[in-house]
Design a protein that fits this description.
148 residues; mainly beta; SH3 type barrels; 5-stranded antiparallel β-sheet; 14 strands; elongated
Length: 148
């Protein structure tokens, strides 16, 4: 095996190991914002996205972000429209928010699909601590929300 071939294989192996470990970059909208089909205010407006909606940042380019929303749609948004405040969106019919990060813990409240919750902190694996806009807090299983 030649040295360049070994280096190529080592590079591919490194990408395979690092790829899954790379964290996704989620942000939330600071205010309602227009989503565009290209990175320019002269581009075609597609739709308006609500305040606090979580989005996944796919590309960052000169003050613009290409983002994916919970439906999987891709669009461009001005970078100034997002905030570092993290939110998640309920992705199931009714998410159960519990008092502790345990499947058998008492339910504090339930949130319907598409309700946005503030992400307070990461919890034990498989859980996130969240807060409803009315102030209630608890733990949700990560499989019940989008934006993590």
């Amino acid at each position: 095996m030649t040295a360049p071939y070994r280096a190529l294989l080592a590079g591919i192996a490194l990408l395979l190991v690092a790829g899954p470990a790379a964290a996704l970059d989620y942000r939330s909208l600071a205010a309602p914002a227009v989503m565009y089909d290209a990175p320019s205010i002269k581009a075609k407006p597609l739709y308006v996205i609500a305040r606090a909606t979580p989005v996944e940042v796919v590309v960052s380019l000169d003050g613009w972000l290409k983002v994916r929303d919970s439906s999987g749609s891709l669009a461009w948004i001005e970078a100034s429209a997002v905030t570092d405040q993290r939110t998640v969106m309920v992705d199931v019919a009714r998410a159960q928010i519990r008092s502790q990060p345990q499947a058998d813990a008492p339910i504090v409240f339930e949130a319907e699909q598409n309700v946005v919750l503030t992400l307070l902190e990461a919890a034990p694996p498989g859980w996130a601590k969240v807060q409803h806009r009315d102030g209630q807090t608890g733990y949700v299983q990560v499989g019940q929300v989008w934006g993590l």
